[in-house]
Amino acid sequence: MEHTVRAYDEELDAITAELARMGGLAEAEVADAIRAIARRDVALAETVISRDARLDGLESEIERKAIRLIALRQPVADDLRRTVAAMKISTNLERCGDLAKNIAKRALVIAQAEPITPLTSSIERMGELVTTRLKEVLDALASREVARAVSVWMQDHEVDEHYDAIFRELLTYMMGDPRTITACAHLLFVAKNLERIGDHATNIAEILHYEITGAELTEKRPKSDALEPPVR
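The structure assignment produced for this chain is given below.
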């Protein structure tokens, strides 16, 4: 029996370790994608795009191990929540990687256009906020601190407010100078991708809260009515 329990704990720890590795990679992907936009760094953007496959692989591996653990060990209560949460969190992290890759693809196009420094600075500030939120929720995951996770959840509206401000700023530029429409449209999609990464950070906070406490956050998530981009 002791051998079985030890083997089970090792399998669960292996999933947790891979989730931590995936979180670190997702955080780096988002930060590098924003840096590629700010610096007009084509090489860095291409690196971000090429690294996305690693996140996909880690998500698949976590899912495979979690399903195997559930099937063979039949965990209950805390252990079951921890296993299922790992799968859900890995899905959110994989999506963050996809959004970072999309930002990097936009960076390749934006690097070829005339610089619009004020708008790029606004995007960079929003990117720093989103990266901070993602780091905070990953730190909460590593330390298993419910209060830190709830703090991220409570601050979701700040990312939405940044997006709304950038949306209006971009519209002003496009109306003032039609030559900026193409670059501004790409920046608009970058801002929307950042807003979605913020949502995934909040999702992770909700999942972590449920995993640790066994209770869902019942309050309505604090959220602004983020504007949708008019160009698709």
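Interim note for the steering committee: Helices lie at 2-39, 42-73, 77-110, 117-143, 146-154, 156-176, 181-213. DSSP finds seven helices and no strands in the chain.
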